[in-house]
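Researcher: Structure prediction, please.
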Amino acid sequence: MRFIFLILFFLLPAGLQAQAIRGKVSDAKTGDDIIGAVIVLGEQRTKGVVSGLDGSFSMTGVTAFPVTLVVSFIGYTSQEIVVENASPIIVRLEQGRVSLDAVVVISDNSGRTDNSARAIERASMNVINVVSAHAIEISPDMTVANVIQRMSGVTLERNSSGDEQYALLRGMDKRFNYTLVNGVKIPSPDNKNRFVPLDIFPAELLDRLEITKAITADMEGDGIGGAVNMVMKDAPSQLQVNANISTGFNTQFFSRNYQQFDYSAIDRQSLFAKYGLGFPVSTSNFTTRNLRVTERNMPPMNLAGGFSAGGRVFNDYLGILVAASYSNIYRGTASDRYAKTYDADREQNITHRDYSTEQRRAGAHAKFDLRLNRNHKLMWYNAYMDFRNIQVRDAIAKDKHDYRLRWNRQSILSSTLKGIHNIWNDKLRFDWSFAYGDAFNETPDNVTVRLRIGRDGRTYADPTGSVIERRWEENSDNDKAAYANLTYFTQAGAVRMEWSAGGMYRDKQRESRFHDYRFRTNPPVPLQYRGVDWEYFDEIGAAFDAGSYNDALNYDASEKIGAGYAQVKASFEKIQLLGGFRMEHTRQGYDLLFPQNNVKNTGFQDYYDWLPNFHAKYELNRNTNLRFSYVKAINRPSFFEIVPYSKEFDDYYERGNPDIRRTIADNIDLRYEYFPRQSEQLMVGVFYKHIKDPIEYTFVDIGQQAYYMPRNYGNAYNAGIEIDITKYFRWFGVKTNYTFTNSRITTDKWLLADDIDPNSPAESKTVIVSQTRPLFGQAAHVANLSLLYKGMQNGWDAQLAFSYTGKRLVYISEYVDEDWWQAGYIRLDASVEKHFAKTGLTLFAKANNLLDTPMYQYIHPNPAQDRFIDFARKNGGLLERKELYGRNIMVGLKFKL
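Model: Predicted structure follows.
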């Protein structure tokens, strides 16, 4: 009912205002509303109003008619209008005429404003959603991951700090989409996957954020879910300088201390990497300064800032924009893990974990564009992103107390040179790009300390195994890519044709290194008690026991992709058609640096994919479109997945699968679009995906151990509906979207015999049955609602943002009804700004996770759980995890010149 009510708002007249001079200001050519136009009384220029978000205005206090109004807006010719009475008026402004002798016609729609973002969605041939720089600026969001959660059909996967990190589009796992910067794919620093963590990118560097949900033939074909394109800021037409600084806190540290360690003491290289594999390792070779954990009594303060400057020089031929951002943010998480076991007192085993996390983000961005003449343009874009995560995890149960001290750094360097050339009287266009990318991820000296708690409550160093483990993990991705596209324009009567062809080649190289060292208590007896024999971890008597440098996670890998495409676009009066065909050849492989027993030490996959697509857009009227898209797309395994490693990580054992196959999918989209005003929209779409061999992760019993590993599971389908609404009422606005997704896949699972009959004999332990479930990571219901206020006259902006993600499958079990689910999650964020126009200053505040809603994870209800009558539960199933992330508050100052 909420959405029906909102749709009816579009039918309401825009000008139900008090008795006064009422009216609207619009573009004389396009009819689009003009937001922010100044309307003043000609007789007294000091009295005036500003047109609102729907272009309307109301001027009160007029004592007599006729009066003269002067209406003006930047880039338009001012108008003087004589108003005879109080009847509503329409003011149509003509765009100003400016000499363009030195201006090149090669351009694009920047998408900086909401109006231009809607124009991009409107003009696009495929299904796309766009968030403008202005919408990002006034939102409560600080990273690209925060921003993308407001878009229709998007679910966010969070990290251990509760921060949004990876995007799931239309219920498809994060692996099924890819990330672009200015239309060019970038390498991932993630040590396990090819997808890019979106929280590494500061939101303030964006001109706009695009989500393409139906790719075209000139885009890379591994986008079953779609593609995320971050269009970075471009040089403004005039000199512009922006700066901002803010500070804040996380409320988790009001109730507990923040834990920290000296990460500056970490040796970035392992002993094997520094001195060679034959180096005789001893305890004295390791520093212990980074093992001392201390606490802060006062909540640590967050800090964030940014700067950008740009403009055009040399008679507007050269555009330059440089930008930088930095943030140092502290996050806290309180997590309870509920085991399906009893402790010695016949109570459920529960482990409480406190996370103290410091996140440092730095970004630098430089963009140059050279307009050689009206037909030729060169662009050079460079970016560097650096993300550092420093975390202490303090985990305590009734009989054990473990710590993890981790410093992780991820970085991305990207450089792209691009040229656009119009040839032969604008009948032929050629564009090309050369892209270089380097992604790096390191976790040096990742320390785990294992302690035990006796029946007397005293804590002592674990004497039975490795009391301290120290790991060095490192991987790098290096990408070199070239793109070329040729488009030929023809006209046959009223039909305009665009014939396009092109290709790309990418050479990706990955190196992965993994070294670990284990220490035992020395001497093993007597026990070393905390508070008696030691206070800090660097005081524990521990001696080097064993080290490993020949794990399967030491490997080199490569991926070479060649692609070519051809497509044609036909534009009729009301209909536009785009059809294309893409071929991609993939050769992907790995080489283990140290041969392993009973595995493939060298492996590769070599295959061709033929990927057709078709898009149609029918213009029902000037403000209404109807779209249809068909796309065939793929998803490739990551390097980490095809390498035959086997290793224990934080919570469970993991294993690679060299026999994993790529996923192939057919995708159909149908969308209705209505744009009643320049910045308003109503979109209703349906989609269907038929998926062959989806790659999903599951727990698999191999021998005596359960491994978390990737597998192919037959065929699946994914279908749903999306509704996206934006509506403005003078100074107020509503943005809302809702997505319903229904996916199904049927797989074989084990059914324990005692789940059928507890009295069955042991020899009939299990049977195999088929069970149907949703796809991994898919939430059936995703909704967002944002309430906006924009006071054009008083300088106040405000936004209240609500998001809901329904329950979703997060771990797949081999056993019937043993899958793990994440419960539905509600989030409320808010932001407010006050602009001081004469000074260029803006005060702002942002608040995230205001409700501090817990995240619950539980095991699907099943009859076998009845015997755990006293265990914690959620939604009828056994509770596995509960996490609280705290509220994050930031206040700051922005400056614009």
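Model: The CA atoms of residues 205 and 313 lie 22 Å apart.
Researcher: Thanks, that helps.
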